[in-house]
Design goal:
Shape: globular
Order of helices and strands: HHEHEHEEEHHEEEHEHHHHHHHH
Oligomer: single chain
């Protein structure tokens, strides 16, 4: 039998830990509750998160504070045009006597903040591909394993600005979730300005650690997803694939990401099964950064948001999801 707050201890623990993580980030980051929750979902799914927004909207701060709150080893990479792939993955150092020693790059961490990812070249961006997909790095034929709880939180400036390079479709597809970081509301900005002294000197500590994350991820896999809901997820993706305005066909990672993230969202809400509303909420965050419009569609002024809304309107919602 499925219902709200089934397996009570399991659900209560996860919801309580999530609240503590959010409370820790609230010490520094005012507002942005949707983004904070999205980072939590990414952590619970073992997925990577891409944050886009103009400079000064808290992308880096939010990611950094969240990474500290979930514990483990944290590394920040500031991407620039002159960076090389080895600056990220590491390299082999050869001594005078021919001995070799591997020097780990900053990617060897539990949480990696890839700051302004689209300010470096596609060649350097691709250094993250194997790490994000397989959790390992291969240097000169030798494979090096990354931590089990490896997670990339990347920020990027809106494409088209000075010194930006577009993420390739393959690179964007490695990110499970996407979020837009906009300007704060009037009330939030007043709170930021009035409380800036406390914000700048706030002490952030780890609420959980890598072992806790592994345990929480196992709890999320116990969330029930009915066949009608799975069919609903696949139907949404399939509807988008059939649109002539889309240049790149959506990969199976879309369905997998939608499945995993919907489970995590249900879990955060204290439920042990997924509702269509969970799928609807996550659909935009899973699909937006993966949509590549044709040149003709862009010339006609078509927007990604409109396509996503059209998919949600066109695909019937299952009446008996559980």
């Amino acid at each position: 039998m499925h219902g709200i707050i089934a397996n009570g201890k399991r659900m209560i623990e996860l919801v309580e830990l999530s609240r503590r993580i959010l409370a820790e980030t609230d010490k520094v980051v005012v507002g942005k509750q949707d983004l904070k929750r999205l980072l939590l979902i990414g952590m619970l799914c073992g997925g990577h998160v891409l944050i886009e927004g103009v400079a000064g909207t808290g992308k880096t701060t939010t990611a950094r504070v969240f990474a500290i709150a979930i514990g483990g080893k944290f590394k920040r990479i500031q991407f620039t045009p002159e960076m090389l792939p080895s600056d990220i993955t590491g390299f082999n150092l050869y001594g005078m006597g021919g001995e070799m020693r591997f020097i780990e790059g900053p990617v060897f961490a539990n949480v990696v903040l890839a700051d302004e990812l689209n300010r470096t070249t596609v060649r350097t961006q691709s250094a993250l591909l194997q790490a994000m997909q397989e959790g390992e790095v291969t240097i000169e034929g030798a494979t090096h394993q990354l931590p089990e709880t490896f997670m990339v939180i990347a920020s990027q400036l809106p494409y088209g600005g000075p010194g930006t390079y577009p993420l390739s479709y393959v690179q964007a597809d490695r990110f499970m979730l996407y979020s837009w970081s906009g300007l704060p509301s009037v009330d939030d900005e007043r709170r930021i300005i009035g409380g800036i002294d406390e914000i700048e000197h706030a002490r952030i500590g780890a609420v959980i650690g890598p072992e806790d994350i592994i345990r929480l991820r196992l709890k999320v896999t116990g969330i029930h997803v009915s066949e009608p809901v799975v069919y609903y997820m696949e139907s949404l993706t399939d509807w988008l694939r059939g649109q002539e305005s889309i240049r790149e066909s959506l990969s199976p990672r879309v369905g997998i990401s939608l499945f995993k993230s919907s489970r995590a969202l249900a879990c955060l809400e204290g439920m042990d099964y997924v509702l269509p509303d969970h799928v609807k909420y996550m659909f935009w965050h899973v699909v937006y950064h993966r949509l590549v419009l044709t040149a003709e569609a862009e010339e006609m002024g078509m927007k990604k948001d409109a396509l996503i809304s059209a998919a949600l309107d066109a695909v019937p919602v299952p009446k008996e999801p559980v």
